[in-house]
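Table S2 (continued). Query chain:
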Amino acid sequence: MHRFALAPAFLSVALGATSPGRADPLPAYGPELEGFAYPFPVERFTFTSQRQPLQMAYLDVKPEQPNGRTVVLLHGKNFCAATWDSQIRALTGAGYRVVAPDQIGFCKSSKPSAYQFTFRQLAENTHALLGKLGIERPVIVGHSTGGMLAAHYALLYPKEVAQLVMVNPVGLEDWSAKGLPPISIDRWYERELKTTAESIRTYETATYYAGRWEPRYEPWVGMLAGLNSGPGKEAVAWDSALLYDMIVTEPVVYRFPQIAVPTLLFIGQKDNTAIGKDLAPPEVRATLGHYPELGKAAAKAIPGAKLIEFPDSGHAPQMSEPEAFNKALIEGLETPPSSRTK
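Corresponding output:
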């Protein structure tokens, strides 16, 4: 399977970000990523939640030769629907309809100033979107924080999920129980306001890409940095702080034995993600984010789960190894694991 390139118009806008060796100023995008182009047409789902009108941006990409199945792609904390570009092209090429939403608080969706962010709420929002689109029993694929959301979705709606796929999900361990000190929302907010292109690039190199940076990752740095430096940066940082608090305080690991749908678990073996671990004492920090062990433990805990490991990948194998990842994903969807129970 060949590597799918980013759409030219999308790439030209995204590459406005400062990259190594460039002197261009960093673009500033609006609070709903206004000014940043996605590789497919963006649609919007308007609804009311927690007594306020909201809009959820999403991609709904249909194949030329449909196979009758739909895949829903749930992005991670520092990702957006657009970052699934390669997977959308591969899946639609294989006959799947693909829906990729931007969750509330992220990317091109609403940034409410007062919202109780929970994984249950985000799952309910996603369920409402799929109901509006008339989609029944999709495959739910989630990466990173989206993996936590996908697990909650499968727990809430087990009869409405054909298959669950989690890609390097966070929440495989309870960081607080392991010694991560309490982090207030105000402190998260202060940290988020300091986000820069350099800090994003440094973190992603070490965590997402196993120490190997490539120019093709630069659009996603520009996307995040532009969102965090634009005219709505305070609203973006505040929702980001609320979301980090949700991630840390709602580990899903304890509920893995309750998952009752066929499950695939994709784990980049060089991942070391543990949100907030830089604030932990050194002896605690050393115990967090060991994904080779965490992946095996999760696969053992989820009834009938199948584990697929990517030895050379970090937190984002779908981006660092798109060809291998897309091939494994499509093969996994064609031959889903059993849904046996323990």
